[in-house]
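Supplementary Note 2. Why include the ligand at all?

Several targets in our set were suspected to adopt different conformations when bound, so apo predictions alone were not considered sufficient. For every target with a known small-molecule partner we therefore ran a joint prediction. The input for adenosine-5'-triphosphate is given below.
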Amino acid sequence: MRIWLHNRYSTHGTAVGYNGQNEKEIRLNEMWILAFDPGAESSFRLITVASGGLAIRIEFSNHQGKEAHPAVTEPPSEAQTTSERLIYFKERKIGSGIFGRVFRLIRARDGQYCAGKVFTPPPTSKKRRRGETDPV
Ligand SMILES: Nc1ncnc2c1ncn2[C@@H]1O[C@H](COP(=O)(O)OP(=O)(O)OP(=O)(O)O)[C@@H](O)[C@H]1O
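The joint prediction is reproduced in token form.
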């Protein structure tokens, strides 16, 4: 089951958080997925509820007996403005490498699963200052 929130006429935008994430991310005219349950049985049609400027679209897709969408790694994103940047919610850690930790993410706009790496900055102790000579 997918539940979407689309603010069509909001003056100040809408913020949707998950587990305390992205709570301060306010968007205008953005579509948000509010719930996703891959094991949900399909027994309803698409429902759209419109109330004033708030429209809630409820999509009951049939995922019964199917695995959740496999995690995929996306190509690097183009440079985007803050309001265009896609929003991801961290679901859980799925691995780690030398350069950082890898998380299973849910893309807020369409509920697709993705894999995303959070890079760990290298320790600063080995950084050399400008003008410092190479170690022998
Ligand atoms: N697209 C993905 N789907 C599922 N799991 C993934 C995906 N990408 C990474 N992982 C998991 O995260 C782990 C670490 O991935 P990462 O890309 O960081 O590996 P790495 O190349 O060994 O790391 P590094 O480049 O930091 O040395 C993988 O071993 C795997 O378990």
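Strands lie at 2-7, 14-15, 26-27, 31-36, 47-51, 54-59, 88-96, 100-107, 113-119. The chain has a mean pLDDT of 77. Comparable summaries for the other entries are listed in the accompanying table.
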